[in-house]
Amino acid sequence: MIYKVLYQKDKIVNPRRETTQTLYMEADNIVQARALVEQNTPYNIELIQELTGNSLKYEQEHADFKLTAFGQTNSED
Predict the structure, then answer these.
(1) In the predicted model, is pLDDT for residue 3 greater than 50?
(2) pTM for this one?
(3) CATH topology of domain 2-65
């Protein structure tokens, strides 16, 4: 699934709508999406939204749409 994550660059500065940024990512579920962002960035997550159907198509048609991939390690012992 593809998720849209709205965030602030860090957790220290008070959130302001004008400085909210967006990233798009793939994850199995919303819990995994949040965990990946929290483990790999200092971002203050405001909202995570699953994109499907027309919402996904709309976002993909914009120039800013680019999937962010975090280094994932699959350790199966």
Answers:
(1) yes
(2) 0.84
(3) Ubiquitin-like (UB roll) (3.10.20)
